Amino acid sequence: MKTSASIQLYDTSLRDGAQSEDVSFSVEDKLLIAKKLDELGLHFIEGGWPGANPKDILFFEEMKKVQLKNAQLVAFGATRRWRGKATEDLNLANLLKAGTEWITLFGKSWDLHVTEALGITLDQNLDLISDSIDYLRSKGKRVFYDAEHFFNGYSARPDYALKTLRTAREAGAECLILCDSNGGMMPWQIEEILKVVMKEMGNPIGIHAHNDSEMAVANTLTAVSLGVTQVQGTINGFGERCGNANLCSILPNMKLKMGLEVLSDDQLQNLRSVSRYVSEIGNLPHNKHQPYVGRSAFAHKGGIHVHAVRKNPKTYEHVDPEKIGNQQRILISDYAGKSSLLEKAKAYNISLSDDNPQVQKILDKLKMLEHEGFQFEGAEGSFELLMKRALGTEKRFFKLIGFRVIDEKRRSDPHAISEATVRLSVNEQVEHTVARGNGPVNALDHALRQALEKFYPVLSEVKLLDYKVRVLTAKEGTASRVRVLIESGDGQKKWGTVGVSENIVEASWRALVDSIEYKLLMEESS
To answer: Which end of the chain is more exposed for a tag (fewer CB within 10 A), N or C?
Structure first.
């Protein structure tokens, strides 16, 4: 196996990743992500295809003002068109205008693409590869060559696929990247073909895998084990169709499983924050079940599991989560046992011993509520309140006297009118407020805040970040029980609360009240 010093980390999130469905990066987005990737310690950042769209042209112009500390920016493009000369090719001209030292050029390795997609002869394709790389080299550029569909091409016609690689290397390409462009190869196929290529061509060789068969990470690590010198992928595996090889799995696997010091300890600890950052910039929810960096990657739910990890995390954790910037989480559900409950109590600074009779009472209450439809895995704010209510340590900041919500639809108004009335008692003082909102829950939220903010100004910091409604038993139709999950935040912390009822407004009220009480509880204990 090659040492880590010989391995180049190449990120293509800004080009291949941006081709993912539902992802659209603005120029400013790409600039921000490029800086994060540089901080992570990657060696190369593929910025896009200059000339493909105005956004990428502007991005490369703006990047000329950015001083990268670890990475080098790479422009990406295709070999020249088969009609014409390299000196007259617009694509190659745009690559030169990007102003990067490095250019990644892709060309055809599969005879099927040459004869059917391009409609040219096999020898003409070799001319495109040679002429394009030679021209860029004559302009002082350093070139990586992406051998598109290489593994398919080799499987169909190995002699020609190898000939394309030789042509690229003889023209001056500094690394030959073998691409599983269709994402259909298996690790044993990658190994068999790569062994031949390494013997015939030698290094530098790279790997670029797509994930259509859920094998991109496995195929990439197989290539690393055989000694490739460049690893390409994207953050979170973003990419066309099913995505690209996921660097958020590849990097920790290389460092923690294969012993390759591709990143420093500090850089690896930033991996989860970079993963979440890229998702956030891409306006996509972060995949909580993603290995290593997902919120659920080190979450434990079953009582047996929790009991074991309390004694020794290694029993159910393959690595220390803090090495990737993640953390262990103990989930509370009807699968929970005493170990889960005690671990949660400890996290909430609640003094609770194994032999406390309240432990079983809380467990019984928890399981009963979950049977009714409550879910506390995403509503730990409500669960902490549940524990403190059961122990008699919860402070009641206000009492509900009553609330009413009216929805009215008038013929002349295109939108329904929602109005909520709330009557509360705060320190034996009755507050009666009325508010309108964008729907009944929003109106109720406004009325509740109006009643309380004069007593608790800190509630103005609280924002509703997410609101989910789940129908629990559809067989009752519109009378079905629903679960409302609310995520709230104050700019510093986020917390979840839950409410369940056959009445969606009442379920929402319960979740809203828990959210506000949890915030006030945090303020009092801080």
So the answer is: C
H-assigned helices in 206-281: 216-225, 247-252, 265-269, 271-281
Amino acid identity of residue 326, one-letter, is N
Give the C-alpha separation, 200 to 176, whole Å: 13
Per DSSP, the residues of 315-353 read GT-SS-GGGGT---EE--STT--HHHHHHHHHHTT----
What pLDDT, on the 0 to 100 scale, is given for residue 481?
A: 81
Residue 314 lies in a domain: no
Domain holding 232, by residue range, is 4-263
Distance CA 212, CA 69 (A): 34
CA–CA distance, 71 with 45 (Å, rounded to integer):
6
Q: Say yes or no: 372 and 234 in one domain.
A: no
Residue 45: left (phi > 0), alpha (psi -120 to 50), or beta? beta
If residue 467 lies in a helix (H) or strand (E), which one and from where to where? strand 463-471
Instruction: Kindly tell me the burial class for residue 117, based on how many C-beta atoms sit within 10 Å of its own C-beta (0-12, 13-18, 19 or more).
Output: exposed
Which tokens hold the place of 400? 């509900």
Query: If you ran DSSP here, which 8-state letter would residue 458 be given?
Result: G
Query: Higher-confidence residue: 244 or 427?
Result: 244
Instruction: Say which residue, 212 or 337, is predicted with more confidence.
Output: 212
- pLDDT for position 1: 44
Whether 2 shows a pLDDT value over 50: the answer reads no
Q: Where are the alpha helices (DSSP H) in 117-213?
A: 122-138, 150-156, 158-171, 187-201
- Residue 395 one-letter amino acid: K
How many domains, in total, are found in the chain?
3
Q: Looking at the predicted structure, is the pLDDT value of residue 521 above 80?
A: yes
CA geometry: angle at 165 spanning 98 and 17, to 5°? Answer: 45
At residue 56, the 3 state secondary structure works out as helix
CATH (domain of 520): 3.30.160.340
Angle formed by the axes of helices 380-391 and 338-347, nearest 10°: 100
d(CA 467, CA 484): 7
End-of-domain residue from the set 206, 236, 263:
263
Which of these three, 238, 263, 288, is where a domain ends? 263
The residues, any chain, with a CB within 8 Å of residue 328's CB and separated by 6 or more, are 298, 299, 300, 309, 313, 317, 321
The tokens for 188 are 């044993």
| CATH code for the domain of 91 | 3.20.20.70
